[in-house]
Amino acid sequence: MSEEPQIPVDPDDETEIPESHPRHESLLARHRIEAGVEKGITSLQGLIAQGRGETYDYLLGERTIESADAAARAAAAEFLLADHPVISVNGNVAALSPDAVVDLAQATDADIEVNLFNRTEERMAAIAEHLREHGASEVKGLAADGRIPGLDHARATVDADGIHAADVVLVPLEDGDRAAALDAMGKTEIVIDLNPLSRSAQVADIPIVDNLVRVLPLIAEHARDLRDASREELETIVQGFDREAALDAAERVIRSGASE
Ligand code: ATP
Ligand code: MG
């Protein structure tokens, strides 16, 4: 009989996932998403997004490829060059990596804003509360007094002094439509998406084809490493990043299993 993966019984208890399990990271992520749904911070649609992401991650070898590391460094440079960077958080991001979001915001002096595809006030409040429990001092998104032009009402809603006023926005798992609308507003857009063919990745100034669980801490690490770099050095890093080449490299790895 083949061995069944042990899915934890209690969604609040991560310790029930055996560390020795070969798919420990993946089980942990599923567990967090499941717990997120139970806590009212992740939508049922989020389960589908998670499944799609896992597929691409499997094909990438569940590692940060070289071009994604370069993208993460360019993203860190953009954050440090920005006047007003914002990290956009949805239900999957909040469930998977709340500590990493808070840490990245601290490392880069960025705002955190909750932004949902399926917006409900309950879920907005639950996510903001969850982020505060993980150390966020301020969470935006609840004022809802700004609009992204070109989108229908609910999906256009942002904070006037948050995403609306931002010059650099990090959108992990953004919906393609809204990613395009933010791009049209002239913002520097950094997208984390495991699918290099996703519209969100395609419209990004800096597409990072990696799992947000791995790459959020990596962006913070690059930001700390670059903290004392001059504007010229940061600009050189940004200019040296080639978005087309990064997307091509990720697609090549996925299609051929090549190391890059
Ligand atoms: P498209 O962009 O192709 O039009 P979509 O964005 O509407 O499709 P969804 O399935 O809603 O499609 O998007 C979920 C996206 O999030 C997928 O591209 C998936 O690869 C990505 N994703 C899911 N989990 C993660 C994760 N942990 N890290 C990074 N990306 C993820
Ligand atoms: Mg997409």
TrEMBL record:
Its EC number(s) = 6.3.2.36
How is this protein named in the record? 4-phosphopantoate--beta-alanine ligase
Query: What family does this chain come from, according to its entry?
Result: Belongs to the archaeal phosphopantothenate synthetase family.
On subunit structure and binding partners, the annotation says: Homodimer.
What Gene3D superfamilies is this protein classified in? Answer: Phosphopantoate/pantothenate synthetase (3.40.50.12640)
Pathway note:
Cofactor biosynthesis; coenzyme A biosynthesis
Catalytic activity, as annotated? (R)-4-phosphopantoate + beta-alanine + ATP = (R)-4'-phosphopantothenate + AMP + diphosphate + H(+)
| Superkingdom field | Archaea
